[in-house]
Amino acid sequence: MIIVIQCKxxxxxxxxxxxxxxxxxxxxxxxxxxxxxxxNRFFIRIEVNGEAPMEMLQxxxxxxxxxxxxxxxxxxxxxxxxxxxxKEYHCLSDILVRHHFRTLGASVQHVIGNYPVLEDICRRFExxxxxISHQEIDKxxxxxxxxxxxxxxxxxxxxxxxxxxxxxxxxxxxxxxRIINIHHSFLPxxxxxxxxxxxxxxxxxxxxxxAHFVTDQLDEGPIIAQQIIPVSHSFTATDMMKAGKEIETxxxxxxxxLVFEDRVLVYKNKTVVFE
Amino acid sequence: MIIVIQCKxxxxxxxxxxxxxxxxxxxxxxxxxxxxxxxNRFFIRIEVNGEAPMEMLQxxxxxxxxxxxxxxxxxxxxxxxxxxxxKEYHCLSDILVRHHFRTLGASVQHVIGNYPVLEDICRRFExxxxxISHQEIDKxxxxxxxxxxxxxxxxxxxxxxxxxxxxxxxxxxxxxxRIINIHHSFLPxxxxxxxxxxxxxxxxxxxxxxAHFVTDQLDEGPIIAQQIIPVSHSFTATDMMKAGKEIETxxxxxxxxLVFEDRVLVYKNKTVVFE
Amino acid sequence: MIIVIQCKxxxxxxxxxxxxxxxxxxxxxxxxxxxxxxxNRFFIRIEVNGEAPMEMLQxxxxxxxxxxxxxxxxxxxxxxxxxxxxKEYHCLSDILVRHHFRTLGASVQHVIGNYPVLEDICRRFExxxxxISHQEIDKxxxxxxxxxxxxxxxxxxxxxxxxxxxxxxxxxxxxxxRIINIHHSFLPxxxxxxxxxxxxxxxxxxxxxxAHFVTDQLDEGPIIAQQIIPVSHSFTATDMMKAGKEIETxxxxxxxxLVFEDRVLVYKNKTVVFE
Amino acid sequence: MIIVIQCKxxxxxxxxxxxxxxxxxxxxxxxxxxxxxxxNRFFIRIEVNGEAPMEMLQxxxxxxxxxxxxxxxxxxxxxxxxxxxxKEYHCLSDILVRHHFRTLGASVQHVIGNYPVLEDICRRFExxxxxISHQEIDKxxxxxxxxxxxxxxxxxxxxxxxxxxxxxxxxxxxxxxRIINIHHSFLPxxxxxxxxxxxxxxxxxxxxxxAHFVTDQLDEGPIIAQQIIPVSHSFTATDMMKAGKEIETxxxxxxxxLVFEDRVLVYKNKTVVFE
Lengths: 275, 275, 275, 275
Known about the structure:
- By secondary structure, chain A is of the alpha/beta class.
- Helices cover 33% and strands 29% of the residues of chain A.
- Chain A has helices spanning 13-23, 54-64, 90-100, 119-124, 139-153, 169-173, 195-202, 237-260, and strands at 2-8, 27-36, 41-49, 70-73, 79-85, 106-113, 129-131, 157-160, 179-183, 206-213, 223-230, 264-267, 270-273.
- In chain A, a hairpin with a 2-residue loop joins strand 12 and strand 13 (270-273).
């Protein structure tokens, strides 16, 4: 079993939680705890061997912990996700391959593209694809069509795998800490459009990619994972973009693994990642 | 306070330990736990805010935990070390600089060199240096002279900072998990002498360095930290050696920081590193 | 145009080569040269803007350069490859996806598997798959069946994407520096079988993967690229294998890109890689 | 001998240069060339075996190359440098140690500090130190006192090894591409003050450091080298600063090596680095 909890910090939380587990004859195999003193916030992730009734555990922990405690016992082991894309194939293909071979830790319910180009690769893996164009319609209507799909699929997470449209605050607000984006730069450098062109102009020697939860502040949500790759003067902006795609794929895969294994806790604008 | 414990695993250990801490009004700021199921071994490192009498804590924990428990409460915050060297300056200088500016997390009591070349740099930092030559004497006598210095200094750890002599099992056995070595390769590749020459001949594209505890099996002790650096066809064996020195310095510094902060627990031939 | 040459070293080679290019009004955009003094061997890779008749260039260069010169002008821009696999999907899928989206720099002619499990993924990408079992037949017969496919496909390179059988010296000798293998370890550590089990037992803190040309010395051929990933005490042997697969995929992709862009020159047991 | 040239690009430059070298019986051991097409700029670095009169080579190359050619033959093998510091010891100590053991590739003529705290470490290595305070004097006077030292030392390069004052455009303009700074962040993220505090607030998972030439645009000069180090939620802003110092030291050392080996060519706001 996996138990993930966050709440305000106070003395005795670990004793209270581990006491309940011991009484239920659950053996703790791995435990990670973190306190953020600036926020007075307590985070814990516990893996135990053994089984116990989940409702009872939930109830007993609730009575012992502060009122604001968010307790997650045995989170759904295989998450359901919807992937949103535009035209670039690299992140989506990686997700589809892992899904296909059952190593993603999640099940891809549906793919939504604002262009139809990636429908073919989805079809090859028998994943439903909806082409929802943003062109010649109001943003509100565009997002409502997306919401219709999401309501039908009830995903745990929405993965923006190189989805190049900006979503409205209303849309984002409906899925707090449930939308994951891959940003093509080492945030906070090169916020916004054309980061590889910016990186080229600046003559950087490393380029990066950042996977983060989406909030209504563009490119400002809690960071889950970041990675870099060295570049040199011999790289054109196009070469940088190609190199960037490699780490975009890699860092999104890593972030998704961490999230799907319930290793990422979010509080305010930061993540606690228990690797 | 910092509390580090290892013992055989059983149900309820975290509850028992954290219960004692809660009763003493100690707040857990950071907790890392690991169970090695193949060895049925429990490891924990806890940082708490607040103070409590150490002897009492030790006594209460001892009665609750299995008999084989090794309990370390508030390990000496600044370790005492003796550094042993041959002729290469890079690791020693890094240690001396950090010692000098009080950022090593340890106090260098003495440096022993089997050549006199590094005496000068020690003198500049006012660290006592003993030149103990291995030449024209029995190994036993050589090691006895080293032991005399060690007995006088009573170091917590002995750091082999590019000490190029092989110590006898008897010597090593006298300081279990207290001798730290920097090995100039990515163990277990290139065990033994001339690893850079071996790496050059093999045409590798990465070279590594390994910091490990010394056991009587040459280059086989528990690994603390490893690091690599990319190389290319344009590197001569000498260039590889130069690049290697950079990561030797860096990985030894990292390993020492981890050990001096009581983040490294050793069991059999492996380490648990709570970073 | 791309021009790649290796020959024994002598004074004036760059002048001779660049003189011919200048006379043909070809502008050198990028030039990388390397001399291995221990082998007295000259390596060069030149990218030029402009066009000139290839046969004429070849002829003029041949007359100027030492007799042993290997001159390759405008190597086939898109290589033909055959991929050989056993049961693991990760490297093959990555190759198939890049092939499908025309970013591999090569065209996958055929996939050969000694088990049938990866036939399905090939079918999804419309790549012919031959199941050639090694079971219950002589190795000679097994290899002859593979050779039949290779003769039909005439690949520039054979990619062993987790092909877990050892090929005979006769087979390997038929394709010198044309068989590329991904080895699941940081060679020369953990040569042979079960490297992740070996790595786990040893308690390493980094695991690696190596892409190399295959020679008749097992795991001893010229190394093209290597990469590592950090691991910790919390990794089981299975976790190490999973992490290893990620870098296997990544390092093989990188090695293939380098080879397909004609950036890798081989001499004896080493590579010169002009990145 | 080492020959480094940059000029506007045209057909036949490599042929012209290598022709001269061949006539002088100089054997090219390593050659790196790069053309920046967007700037129509040619860069080359050549290492040759053999000797020839430098003035004659310079003259013959000058007549063959475009008028704007900057030709550097056998640049001074050991550069002279002046180091400027404030209070932090880590970069300066690393430079002093390498200087002391003759592995810096440069000779430290003098250290200037706007605080006196680092005088002691300089004294230990017998390097002259000038305390030039910025306090209670005009910036102009402050800089004039620095200039007096520089005029006396005639350094090839000025290294800002954590010098925390902003120099005037007039000062900087007097030493174009000769002032090297280490910036405590992954530029262009976190420009300006308190980058570690900024990084902490943003919850980044990597922190970086950047070595660059100084221009009158704050933190905007040509980048020489960059490096990153992973961090996690468990890092306080102070921990990030400590981790940052490690890579500041390392990336500055790397940048200095590249510059001192004449591997860095600057044009406009970018560098070409021939590693």
